[in-house]
Specification:
By secondary structure, this protein is an alpha+beta fold. The protein folds into two domains: 114 residues, Nuclear Transport Factor 2, Chain: A (Roll), CATH 3.10.450; 314 residues, 3-Layer(aba) Sandwich (Beta-lactamase), CATH 3.40.710. It has 14 helices and 15 strands. Strands 8-7-15-14-13 form a five-stranded antiparallel sheet. The protein has a four-stranded antiparallel sheet with strand order 3-4-5-6, covered by helices on one side. Strand 5 and strand 6 form a beta hairpin. The longest helix has 16 residues. It starts with 53 loop residues before the first strand and ends with a helix. The relative contact order is 0.18.
């Protein structure tokens, strides 16, 4: 997928990509090793160091290869000289129309965004960045910039786009809703929605402010990856791994929808980078490599320690490829027998039938059972997600476990206009989609904390529809309004 784009007159927010994590097409532990004396950050006022600090319009980017490419783009728009073909060739993949890119920089971007600066960081990972830029042309709207790079080798840019952005993702009808009205509107968008808005108190417990069906289990999509991350954090806390330990990309752990599948086999990733790719880009292949690293038993232990209400809905805890196999490798009656079977039956079926199928990449799906997307995949409640965020947030500061979690969870805000309101923004979302009936599952979860604040906010919005066709743009609009209202709440 190699492209660049200019500007289009945005129709129904057409210029703004939906930044949820596409899954297909997408009480703290009693003994935590170095964190065994876990002290919840919510018990005291915390000075938070932003992940992407900025000063005078200059952002201090993470130490990623992508960061150099991103900063070069911004610097080019501030430079007085024009961009040359040689500069493009040195940084962009050969799959681009490189002479066209020269014209795009010189004839479109520079006039639109002279002396451009980054005004909002939506998401940055080792391979993908989404930022909002603004320049000195008062006639121009903001710019919504996406940039992807290779991880290995010279880290060339493989995708680049800039689109007009008005500054808001909210529909006019959502802009004046009260919190209760926004909650009711969200609930009415899909037949099976759940909403949780609350805070993490001084004891690390979730304290609701407003909720709608928050105790009802829903399909989660990629939100389940938070429990994989929790097991990674525990492994770091126990000294079994270090953040910079290498993980080699192997064919046996490549999964459908993995964004690093095209990297050369044998490429070495750090645990830290894989965790950030798993959370910030919802990368399925990073997920399966980390699932293999920590193991199913360790993840199940996290479910128990966190206090997930019905852990049996998540067990045996499948990785991405295994879950794909449930609704793509077996006929529907066989797949349904697994979904509705006892715990013992599912574990036996997993070992005898699912595991031997191997990785789900390259993709070869003889079936695709839409009927299993909401009832046959990872499920939990909105309250369970809050408890999970509280547990992760309660990791000891200055520990490798917290630092990896903070980078991974903080790498994505999912929407513009969120990170500028908070010192700490954590996000994970997910989706399950059918090529015929659209989205059946769309989920969002944020942890939001102001600098010096003692109690973080949590917003969890889960949407399920057995019939599919969830309207992601409408949900983005109303959740944006909810986030805006939460930002205005007193500490």
């Amino acid at each position: 997928m190699q492209s660049f784009s200019g500007f289009s007159s945005a129709g129904r927010l057409a210029a703004l990509p939906i930044l949820f994590a596409l899954f297909l097409m997408v009480s703290p532990p009693a003994d935590c090793g170095e964190g065994s004396d876990r002290v919840f950050a919510s018990a005291f006022s915390e000075d938070i160091h932003p992940l992407f600090p900025s000063s005078g319009g200059t952002v201090d980017w993470p130490d990623y290869g992508l960061s150099d490419r991103l900063q070069w783009v911004i610097d080019e728009l501030a430079a007085s000289e024009t961009t040359s073909l040689a500069e493009i060739q040195a940084r962009f993949s050969g799959g681009f129309d490189q002479p066209g890119l020269v014209s795009f920089f010189n004839d479109v971007l520079r006039p639109q965004f002279p002396d451009a600066v980054v005004v909002d960081v939506v998401g940055v990972s080792p391979t993908r960045a989404t930022v909002v830029i603004d320049g000195d042309n008062p006639a121009s709207e903001l710019g919504y910039l996406n940039l992807w790079t290779q991880y290995a080798g010279s880290g060339l840019i493989t995708y680049f786009s800039v689109g007009n952005f008005s500054g808001s993702v909210q529909f006019p009808g959502d802009q004046y809703l009260t919190l209760g009205e926004a909650a009711d509107h969200f609930q009415g968008l899909t037949p099976a929605n759940s909403l949780y808005i609350g805070r993490i108190d001084s004891q690390g417990q979730c304290s609701p402010v407003l909720q709608r069906e928050a105790q009802t289990p829903r399909a989660l999509g990629s939100i389940f990856k938070m429990w994989v991350l929790a097991a990674v954090a525990q492994r770091l806390a126990d000294g079994l791994s270090n953040p910079q330990d290498p993980i080699t990309l192997v064919a046996a752990e490549r999964a459908a929808g993995g964004i690093i599948n095209e990297e050369p086999l044998g490429t070495s990733f750090s645990v830290d980078h894989m965790a950030t790719l798993m959370m910030g880009n919802s990368d399925n292949t990073s997920t399966d490599h980390l699932h293999e690293l920590v193991g199913r038993t360790a993840i199940a232990g996290q479910l128990a320690d966190i206090g997930v209400e019905n852990p049996q809905l998540l067990q045996p805890f499948l990785n991405i490829s295994e879950q794909f196999h449930v609704f793509t490798r077996f006929d529907l009656p066989t797949a349904q027998s697994y979904v509705s079977g006892s715990q013992a039956f599912r574990e036996q079926f997993l070992n005898d039938e699912i595991v031997p199928e191997g990785p789900s990449y390259p993709i070869d799906f003889p079936f695709f059972h839409d009927a299993l997307l909401t009832e046959g995949t990872w499920r939990a409640t909105a309250e369970d997600i809050c408890r999970t965020l509280a547990s992760l947030q309660g990791l000891p500061r200055n520990s490798s476990a917290f630092e990896v979690v903070d980078r991974a969870m903080g790498s994505q805000a999912a929407q513009p206009g969120v990170r500028n309101e908070w010192a700490r923004v954590w996000y994970k979302g997910g989706s399950l989609e059918s090529g015929i009936s659209g989205l059946h599952v769309l989920t969002h979860a944020w942890l939001l904390q102001a600098d010096g604040a003692s109690r973080p906010w949590v917003v969890v919005a889960l949407s399920n529809n057995e019939a599919g066709n969830i309207d992601a743009i409408a949900i983005q609009s109303v959740t944006s309004r909810i986030l805006e209202l939460v930002a205005g709440m007193p500490d």
